[in-house]
Design goal:
The chain has 222 residues and is of the alpha/beta class. 41% of the residues lie in helices and 23% in strands. Strand 3, helix 3 and strand 4 form a beta-alpha-beta unit. Helix 3 packs parallel to helix 4 and helix 7 packs across helix 8. The model has no long low-confidence stretch (mean pLDDT 92).
């Protein structure tokens, strides 16, 4: 899952990127409203963490512009603690949730998990697909109760497919959601990773849909 953090406080931006990265997400960062607005318009993010008080273009205007242009990704806004009006303006502009500053990083992580699973139509932080279970809190995957050791990129790939299970996901879509903007993207590497994950899983859960991409689905009965 690929996230965007828009926060002008350099230290806070760094902490968010690091914590979200440790939690298994790919994170792009922007330090002002214009840069953030541009990235949100041009890159496909699974969720955005958006500060309200930003230079160049404030967070509410950024969010309004995205929504006006039809961008529906979940957005978590960061507001000043005593500014209730920021929350109201943020929700009216299309925010999905908020955290007031100062906050505990754990709360941001929990809210991001909730936004991601809700936008994918799941009700809990454990996602299940037949024998495969992913615990998004611990970034852990099990198959028939047995822990599957995955590298961080393999985990991201499985997590993305699990959030979109039952649907065909193209290689291009995977590349766009697994790597940050600076990564040298090559859709062939996705095939290599899928091959490695298939070797680690006992059940043939990741199916190749010829010419289209991949689909994670429950094994056929019988
Ligand atoms: Ca700020």
């Amino acid at each position: 899952m690929r996230l965007l953090v828009v926060e002008d406080d350099k230290e806070l931006n760094r902490q968010l990127k690091e914590s979200l990265g440790d939690a298994g997400y790919v994170v792009d960062t922007a330090f002002d409203g214009e840069e953030g607005h541009f990235l949100g318009e041009t890159e496909p993010y699974d969720a955005v963490i958006l500060d309200i008080g930003l230079p160049q273009m404030d967070g509410v205007s950024v969010l309004e512009a995205w929504r006006r242009d039809g961008h529906k990704m979940p957005v978590l806004i960061l507001t000043a603690r005593d500014r209730w009006s920021d929350k109201v303006a943020g929700f009216d502009a299309g925010a999905d949730d908020y955290v007031a500053k100062p906050f505990h990083m754990e709360e941001v992580l929990a809210r991001v998990r909730a936004l991601l699973r809700r936008s994918a139509g799941h009700a809990t932080s454990e996602l299940e697909c037949g024998p495969l279970v992913i615990d998004t809190r611990a970034a852990r995957v099990t198959e028939n109760g047995i822990h599957i050791k995955l590298t961080s990129l393999e985990y991201r790939l499985v997590a993305y497919l699990m959030h979109h299970q039952g649907r065909v996901v193209s290689r291009t879509e995977l590349v766009e959601h697994l790597y940050d903007q600076d990564f040298d993207r090559d859709s062939n590497t996705v095939e290599v990773f899928v091959g490695r994950i298939r070797k680690k899983l006992k059940t043939g859960m990741i199916q190749t849909v010829r010419g289209l991409g991949y689909c994670l689905a429950k094994p056929e009965d019988g």
